[in-house]
Amino acid sequence: MPRLLKRAALGCAALAVIGCGGRSAPSPGPPAPVVAPPVNAAELVRALRGGGFVLFVRHAASAPGDDGARVVIEDCRTQRNLTAVGQAQAQAIHAALTRLRIPIGEVRASPYCRAADTARLAFGYMLLDNDLRPLRDGHSATHLAAVRHLLATPPVPGTNAVLVGHADTFAKLTGIELGEGDTAVVRPEPGGGSWTVVGRIAAAQWSALAIARAVAPSTESNRRAGAAAVATAPVSTAAAAREG
Questions:
Q1: Is-contact 13 28, C-beta < 8 A?
Q2: DSSP 3-state helix, strand, coil percentages of the chain (rounded to 5)?
């Protein structure tokens, strides 16, 4: 299946959701819950401030159940969509990235509405990429090879790249089941062709990460120390709630 890439318009407000299939923008949801930051929070943030990582984000919390029997990408009514909690999770990611001064470069997202809306709320822009669709849509070998390549590709220097997709893709590649709204931090290895999962941020941890007092201003020495420390951070493999 050829890859579909198209830039989504941002519109007037950076956090406004541009509706799919003619629907109106969802109303703001309740605040996301705040929990403890990751154990390696300070090192993780210092490393991300220096750039060089790929963030694989599973779409935020969505409605229970399954997609319709016949999914039409342009019609969000045929799909599971973000709940108010999911909207708040994505907005919390945006707020944390802004407060922590974590530089974001290219953002790619599955064209499914729940992934595209997560990207719009969290990052403000993205490219829609068919290779990030759920594997059950078919052509899984081709999609996995493309995502594997994206995870192994270093981003533009000084930035972090983002992939917003579904649980089955990342689980198939790593054996790690991401919960809705969870982020896996991936480090492409020098020379390309390989990559390492170096950390994980649960959806509810972004707000705590933003206010963690242990985070110091970024310097080159801090960046290197953080990158070295985060390379050995343990990665949780808690089960995800649903397939996509």
A1: no
A2: 35, 15, 50
